[in-house]
Amino acid sequence: MSSQHRPLPPLEVRERATCMCDYGSACSSFAPGHALHLIQSRLASATPSEWSDAIVEHADAASGVILVRTLEGGEPVALWNGAGASLVLSPGAPVALHGRYHVLAAGRERFNVLRR
């Protein structure tokens, strides 16, 4: 005679998950400002008219904050990235910002950014 299978109830989540970039490792999250998801990158590439050219004014490696100024309107845009964009960028570097999908392009590299 077989016993009835009793499914285990799901565990209750008691704490928010933290990304590994908080501990100096690679991002384990695809939330805004963390790792760039493949679909996010492809959507940004598929909509080329929504890119805005910009120049990096400031990049703080300790906090991950990047300040860029768009060429179209000259408006400053503050961004945050925990995946290392501020380590790659330097003041005066040309970049492109995709407004809809929150992607920052620096040469061939793409970063998921959080607009602050």
Provide a quick synopsis of the model.
The chain has helices at 38-46, 85-88; strands spanning 51-60, 65-70, 76-80, 94-98, 103-106, 109-112, 114-115.
Textual characterization of the structure:
This protein has 116 residues and is mainly beta. The protein has a single domain (21-115), classed as OB fold (Dihydrolipoamide Acetyltransferase, E2P). The radius of gyration is 19 Å and the shape is elongated. Strand 2 (65-70) and strand 3 (76-80) form a beta hairpin. 22% of the residues are buried. The chain has helices at 38-46, 85-88, and strands at 51-60, 65-70, 76-80, 94-98, 103-106, 109-112, 114-115. The chain is built from two helices and seven strands. The model has no long low-confidence stretch (mean pLDDT 85). A seven-stranded antiparallel beta sheet has the order 6-5-4-1-2-3-7.
Question: How much helicity do the residues have?
Answer: 10-25%
N-end to C-end Cα span? 62 Å
Count of alpha and pi helical runs: 2
Tell me which CATH architecture applies here: Beta Barrel
> CATH top level?
Mainly Beta
Order of strands across the biggest sheet?
A: 6-5-4-1-2-3-7
What is the total domain count? 1
Secondary structure: number of strands: 7
The CATH topology: OB fold (Dihydrolipoamide Acetyltransferase, E2P)
How are the SSEs placed, and which strands pair?
Blueprint: H1 38-46, E1 51-60, E2 65-70, E3 76-80, H2 85-88, E4 94-98, E5 103-106, E6 109-112, E7 114-115
Antiparallel strand pairs: 1-2, 1-4, 2-3, 3-7, 4-5, 5-6
List keywords for this structure.
7-stranded antiparallel beta sheet, OB fold (Dihydrolipoamide Acetyltransferase, E2P), 2 helices, 31% strand, mainly beta, elongated, 116 residues
